[in-house]
Amino acid sequence: MTDSSMAEAMATTRTTASAAAGGCRWGCGLLVAAAVLVVLGGAEALSLDLYDEKCPAAEAAVTAAVRQAMAKDRTVAAGLLRMHFHDCFVRVTAILAGLCSVPFRLRRPVLLDSTGNVTAEKDGPPNVSLHAFFVIDNAKAAVEALCPGVVSCADILALAARDAVVLSGGPSWVVPVGRRDGRVSLVSETSTLPGPRASFDQLKQAFHDRGLSTKDLVVLSGGHTLGFAHCSSFQDRIHPSAAGGMADPSLSPSFAASLRRACPANNTARGAGAGLDATSAAFDNTYYRMLQAGRGLLGSDEALLTHPKTRALVAMYAASQEAFFRAFAKSMLRMGGLNGGDEVRANCRRVN
């Protein structure tokens, strides 16, 4: 099955005048309804109605936790979306028979805390800046009060990431549920996460290893419309190296100058950095327009302009926010669509 046919099998899209769970106050986006849920190899299929009888108020409880947190801190949205991405990209353990090269992912290792003799993924170098774990804790506590032992942390994180996008003005989609939580979280496995300096070939390989297409790479990179990067993630692009190298010529000179003011060569401020795009608390297509203008913050962003196919996709999404929203919902379904954990945790930070 190809990437495109799997996407069509899993979801259909329609433009809607209001997002499903909150009208235009959530951003009049695109509602993506999963039309067909397939059994992927030995993994259990996800469901659209699993909690309708077992825990009908679960989604509302998660949304309330996300909304409350975002009302106090607008960086929560970026934190939840990045957490979901990092969680889905680790723990590749097997190839599912009969589904091209789609890998099998055990779910939610990033939520587990380190223990006395095991350092967990959340304490690995790529994850030390992850935040908003408290939102998942609060949502889990609310759901457990309604229906103990029913809703996994995996599903709560998938729902929370969707809500974070919608509450920031982005598209909505129906999240299939029924994931189970994994029991293994190893810091060594964070080395597989693509970094801020990754080349196009490195990014492409990382996505393809997880059953995601080059189009998914460009679409999900658009999640950088939310959030902030510390100076260390792009310092090498804005300052000449000690060996005499020049700053990155692909950057707009005025943009590079503004970044040097925020991140001087002798910077010691731990919180210094820059927004990933000019509207870093709003989910929109500004990321792509800035990328075209030489204002992409990370080297991995700029990498999308180094290949004709990805450059054309960047241009398409820069020109049409609607096309980006539709594609983003589909790619999020694809990224979060595999199941394969072991349990429903009572506490998202530790195994049962």
UniProtKB/TrEMBL annotation:
Keyword terms, alphabetized: Calcium, Disulfide bond, Glycoprotein, Heme, Hydrogen peroxide, Iron, Metal-binding, Oxidoreductase, Peroxidase, Secreted
Site, as annotated: Transition state stabilizer: R82
One term under GO cellular component: extracellular region
GO molecular-function term, one example from the UniProt record: lactoperoxidase activity
UniProt-annotated binding residues for substrate: P194
Biological process terms in GO annotation: hydrogen peroxide catabolic process; response to oxidative stress
Compartments, record wording: Secreted
Binding site for Ca(2+) 1: D87, V90, G98, E121
Positions of disulphide bridges: C55-C147, C88-C100, C153-C348, C231-C263
Binding site residues for heme b: H224
Enzyme class: oxidoreductase
Domain named Plant heme peroxidase family profile: residues: 45-352
Protein name as annotated: Peroxidase
Species of provenance: Urochloa decumbens
Source taxonomy: Eukaryota, Viridiplantae, Streptophyta, Embryophyta, Tracheophyta
